[in-house]
Specification:
Blueprint: H1 2-28, H2 44-52, E1 56-60, H3 63-79, E2 85-89, H4 92-99, E3 106-110, H5 116-126, E4 130-134, H6 140-148, E5 153-158, H7 162-170, H8 172-179, E6 184-187, H9 192-197, E7 206-208, H10 224-232, E8 241-247, H11 251-263, E9 270-275, H12 281-289, E10 295-297, E11 311-313, H13 320-324, E12 329-332, H14 345-349, E13 354-356, H15 364-373, E14 377-378, H16 382-394, H17 396-410, H18 416-425, H19 427-430
Parallel strand pairs: 1-2, 1-4, 2-3, 4-5, 5-6, 6-7, 8-9, 8-12, 9-11, 10-11, 12-13, 13-14
Helix pairs in contact: 3-4, 3-18, 5-6, 11-16, 15-17, 16-17
Length: 432
């Protein structure tokens, strides 16, 4: 009955949110690209490829989740040479990242809208042997149709914040039947087992494996391209670099303010800023230039110059982990002017000390462990960011000790990708 109401109201909800969706598509651009796939309409070539092989269907919403899906898919391919996969994503940025890895065994598509006739058509064409959802992408029709067709379903790197848990508990009558469609839930922390069980998932289907996102194995950055770009910008490898990663509106100015303060003590310091949404590049560039800084774009690296810019804006998608490798100190975005925080692990694996603001709710458990262990520093504003960054820039031993403590805190997640892959591979044999 609940799913009947959901499908009945879905078109009206789509119309209600359509203006916001259109504005977002226009802002992010490239929205026409393969637009029909959102309605399970595929061209002849795609349909032929889907029919040619049995595939696992993996779904990840955006860049962060796509990175997890690609990491898991690569591991599954290592374990089974015959493994093939359809990876669907929701956002254009997630699609762009996934498309860089597309191959004969990895088909990248947009996820169809979760309305019964659309999702039913998608299943009929994709014909998945299993369904793997990343972090929180449990859609009612997606999992219900999988259950009806006998397609085993896994939720990997399962994420359930305390806020989401409270909301789900309030609507348990609606969400419990949806979660009961899951045959496997791979959770990041031991404490998550009871929380998922309380929402309707059978305890025997829940496995504590650690976080793929926090798994340091096979995550070392490849710095050649980033280092080469810096040289073309007339920035030498000996110069210290402050990097603001995945920043949100307002944070770029804070990082730039801290940079100007630091320049008084470290005149050779360079600044890198990677906005979380590349479509904000023009706006961010204008804001930083108004502070009196000379700004260049990552995509302008082909044009060599004699004078180094003060700040380089990374206006590309999917390269940030490699740029962490050329940084000296890293600020983690979405933690001062926005809530939730971004993933600090890629910077830690790159061997860099990390700082963030007061809002790391999306990584609350890990953030708390890192702060308690001395593996990260929490700052409040430009002044405290400049002060803590200056300490790390002037004391390489302290910076190295922070990285070591952070790496130790990540140790419980080592091997999470391999453990998850093994459970997913055996999923078809363990369903009941």
């Amino acid at each position: 009955m609940m799913r009947f109401i959901y499908n009945l109201l879905f078109p009206f909800g789509l119309l209600l949110f359509l203006p916001t969706y259109i504005v977002k598509m226009l802002r992010r651009g490239n929205y026409r690209h393969k637009f029909g796939q959102r309605f399970a309409i595929y061209d002849r070539e795609t349909t032929a490829r889907l029919a040619a092989a049995q595939r696992t269907w993996m779904h990840a919403v955006s860049v962060g989740e796509v990175s997890i899906a690609l990491k898991l898919a690569a591991r599954l391919k290592q374990c089974d040479a015959a493994f093939s996969c359809v990876l669907t994503t929701t956002t254009t940025t997630g699609f762009a990242l996934a498309e860089t890895q597309q191959s004969e065994w990895l088909e990248v598509m947009y996820n169809p809208l979760d309305w019964w006739p659309i999702m039913r058509r998608a299943f009929g064409l994709i014909q998945p042997v299993r369904l793997v959802l990343v972090e929180a992408e449990v859609w009612p029709n997606l999992v219900a149709i999988a259950r009806k067709r006998g397609v085993p379903t896994a939720l990997v790197n399962a994420r359930l914040s305390s806020r989401s848990e409270r909301r789900f508990r309030r609507f348990r009558a609606f969400v419990a039947p949806i979660f009961r469609c899951l045959d496997l839930v791979c959770v990041q922390e031991a404490a998550d087992v009871g929380r998922w069980a309380a929402l309707g998932v059978s305890p025997e289907r829940i496995r504590h494996v650690g976080s793929i996102k926090f798994d340091p194995q096979d995550a070392k950055p490849k710095t050649d391209a980033a280092a080469g770009a810096l040289r073309r910008f007339a920035i030498s490898e000996d110069q210290p670099v402050l990097l603001g990663g995945s920043t949100h509106a307002g944070e770029e100015e804070i990082v730039a303010d801290a940079f100007q303060r630091l320049r008084e003590q470290f005149p050779l310091l360079a600044l890198l800023i990677a906005p979380r949404h590349v479509e904000r590049t023009r706006q961010v560039r204008r804001a930083i230039e108004q502070l009196g800084l000379n700004v260049a774009l990552r995509t302008e690296a082909a044009f060599s110059r004699d004078r180094a810019p003060d700040c380089i804006l990374l206006d590309t998608t999917g390269e940030l982990p490699d740029w962490y490798g050329v940084a000296t100190v890293v600020f983690i975005g979405k933690s001062i002017t926005a809530r939730g925080g971004q993933n600090p692990v890629e910077a830690i694996v790159a061997g860099k000390p990390v700082l963030w603001g007061p809002h790391m709710e999306n990584f609350a458990s890990l953030a708390a462990k890192l702060i308690a262990a001395g593996g990260a520093v929490q700052i409040r504003d430009a002044e405290s960011l400049a002060r803590e960054a200056a300490r790390l820039l002037s004391d390489s031993a302290a910076a190295a000790a922070m990285v070591e403590k952070a790496s130790t805190a990540l140790a419980p997640h080592t091997g999470a990708t391999a453990r998850t892959a093994e459970l997913v591979r055996n999923l078809h044999r363990t369903r009941h």
